[in-house]
Amino acid sequence: MTSTRTHRTVSATPDEVWAILSDWAKVGDWFPGIADCVVDGETRTLTLGNGATIVETITQVDPELRRLEYEVTGGDIQVDAHRATLDVLDVGGSTVVVSSVYAAPASRLKIFAGTLEPALDGLEKVLGRS
C-alpha cells in the first residue's frame, strides 16, 4: 500500500477536536463533498455530491489516544485496500490533527490524498477558527 499524511495545528482543545472527529455520523459537517451519511453500528455509508457511495467500517476508536481509524469496505470507489487514521495530539499546549491514508492500488491514493487538506479546512470551519 502507498500512503500519505498531513497535519495541522488548530486553535481548539484536543477534547473539542475529538468531539467533532469521533462523532461518526456527523462527518458531513466538516468533510467536504458528503451529501448524506447513514450509520449502522460500526459501518457508515457516505453518499457524495455526485451520487457515488463509499462504505466505511471503523477499525479503531481510542478515546484515550484520541485516534479514529477506519477502512473503505465497499461502495463505488473500488480499492484493494484502504485505511485512514485521524489522530488528535496535545503537543505542548497546542492541538495537532494528523490525517493519514493508505490505499492500494497506488493509483487510488490520489483520490483519497486530495481530500486531506480540504477536510482539515472543514474541521477548522466547524470549530469556528477560520
From TrEMBL:
InterPro entries: Polyketide_cyclase/dehydratase (IPR019587), START-like_dom_sf (IPR023393). Pfam families: Polyketide_cyc2. It comes from the Bacteria. This is SRPBCC family protein.
